[in-house]
Amino acid sequence: MLRKKVAAQRTAKVEPITDNVLIRLAIDLLLAHSDRLRGDTEEELREALLRNRD
Fold first, then answer.
1. Cβ-count burial of 45 within 10 angstroms (0-12 exposed, 13-18 middle, 19+ buried)?
2. Short-list 34, 6, 45, 10, CA closest to 22
3. Could you tell me which residues come within 8 angstroms of residue 39 by beta carbon, excluding any fewer than 6 positions away?
4. What pLDDT tens digit does each residue of the chain (54 aa) get?
């Protein structure tokens, strides 16, 4: 669903937006903000990562 939404909003459809593209972007974002990861559970890690977003 997210892939379809992102693909539909584009103005320049130069390359396809696939689920794998979104996964790679999510990984890049996670690695870029890995210093924020604090916690013992998935929920704690998510909260720490999303707290005080730039």
1. middle
2. 6
3. 45, 47, 48
4. 999 999 889 888 889 999 999 999 999 999 999 999 999 999 999 999 998 765
Only one residue has tokens 């459809």, namely: 13
C-alpha 19, offset from chain centre = 11
Tell me the two tokens of residue 25: 């972007």
Q: Which amino acid type is present at position 34?
A: S
Q: What region does 39 belong to: left with phi over 0, alpha with psi -120 to 50, or beta?
A: left
DSSP state string for the chain = -HHHHHHHH-S---S---HHHHHHHHHHHHHHTGGG---SSHHHHHHHHHTT--
